[in-house]
Sequence to fold (521 residues):
Amino acid sequence: MRGQGFKGEKYLTPLLTLGVLAGIWQLVVSSGIYTLEELPGPVQVAKGAAELWARDILLEHIGVSMYRFGVAYLLAVSSGVVLGLILGWYNRMLTAVDPFIQILRPISPIAWFPLALLWFGIGNLPAIFIIFLSAFFPALLATVNAVRNVDPVYIKVARNFRTRERDILLKVVVPAAFPHIMVGLHIALGTAWIHLVAGEMLGAQSGLGYLIVDSRNFLRTDWIILGMILIGLLGLALDRLMRLAEKWVNKNWGFVPKTHE
Amino acid sequence: MGKAKIVIEGVEKSFQNKAGAWQEALTGVDLEIREGEFVCLLGPSGCGKTTLLNMAAGFDHPTGGRILIDGEPVSGPDPKHVTIFQNYGLFPWRTVLGNVEYGLEVQGVPRPERQEIAREYIDLVGLEKFAGHHPHELSGGMQQRVALARALAVDPEIIFMDEPFGALDAMTRYKMQEEISRIWQEKHKTIIFVTHDIDEAVYLADRIVLMSPHPGRVKRVLEVPVGRPRERTGYDFTTIRDKVFREFELVHHQDLEFQI
Fold:
């Protein structure tokens, strides 16, 4: 491979890029095209972060966001996977509900805003609902596809040994489909996280999304940028965690060669 | 030889193609397979040998005629008649041991007992060192041994094999043929073995069912009266081989004329 260098370069190179980007950012700020209110620099954002930290608000926002995200994502994924298994396995049911799913799926979760507010009022629920919607469909559809694409030879083998219908699903279809389901859960994680801000922009009185909307009202652009950066970083962390989980599944499912001594 | 194990009477199979027209895949197949017999279905592609195997194994149904096993019509797959597929059909998420014990597991055999039985068959196919490995860590020949052990573990009466060594290299193939021949003699199973390899059929079979395509049918049934273990270079072997080869060529020749 071209461009291989010393150990740790993998981590240093992106850091360097980050430094350059911060430098450009600072240059634009220093050029005076925008006022500091319109575009605060890295220093202002860091100061703003320190201010929020000192007031014990920052961790609270992060905690609340993670809580809502966690609840909504787990609900979406568990119901999406279970329903996906059923629909993927029983063709008739899929035929019955597929058009309905295909109509609901392209509706942006954001379009549900007004109804979510009417139904769930103010608080955690509207945000959880929006995040749930954004994760539910990717999880559902990935599971349906994963089940439908299970190699028929596995089912033949299972039937040959007279496996009961329930066990075919649990002992054969689920494990055979699982690595592909994981891919869907990974995608669902990304879309759900993107909709976190949107979900918290309505009705919520806390959380990273709220921090951004609320800071707009006070023209605290440093906090807006801080909120954006935090969402990006946490999203990255979640994605990495998911990748680790995927790797673990693939290894233990025997789909990726293990190294043997 | 023993009593009739599988009786195939006037079996026909037609498929509807995409245009909606019916196509005959098999026509008028009559065949009787005795208990403990090793029978090879030999023929070029399109002769319906796999279709016939699938119907006998219960994965598919004839559109005409009937197939009886032990005097009963075949109604579906049965653990007493296990099929070994060309692409093995091993569960990649299970270890070798987990794969081999599967059949006993779904029958509700308690874990210690079924693992003991599974290990016995893993030993039989010479994979005792690999019980904890996953299928993808094994070579093609080893994977096929696992499939064989999994089939044997439920102590079936019949084993259907669908070109099981088709994906293996020549040397591994020979080794597996010797292996299956040894195990067949040891375990006294009835084996129906689909292949398009003449040498393989002559090495393994008590009787070779020669099939021809368009539509698929049984052309001839040939006895292989050669003692075991068979010598691939022995006089008896090469004589029978030549005979089968000539018959096989004839099948091809007629097929060619049919197409012209």
